[in-house]
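Entry 12.
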Amino acid sequence: MNKVRKFTDKIPKPFKNKYIITLFLFAFWIVFIDDYNIMEQYKLEKKIEDLESQKSYYMSEIDKDSTKFYHIQNIQEEQERFAREKFLMRKDNEDIFIIREKKDE
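Predicted 3D structure (tokens):
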């Protein structure tokens, strides 16, 4: 018992206050133990930033594709160009040469 009394006598008086101890335990709980601690909040913020950047990328891709789709639907020259590029279609009086690059393996 004497050792315990010596130990408690060495603790500064403000740290013996029950309100300060409660405040310290509450802060420790919020920062490290709680489900929504500071580290989790940081990870969630980082994930939100990544998702927002992906959202802006995909929105720009949707805009590009929708304009391309509009042009293909409404402009005859674009329809012919698309058919020639993607489906290797040709007119009656022309020949198509397909050039493929060798893959270095």
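Annotation: The two ends are 79 Å apart (CA to CA). The chain has a mean pLDDT of 87.
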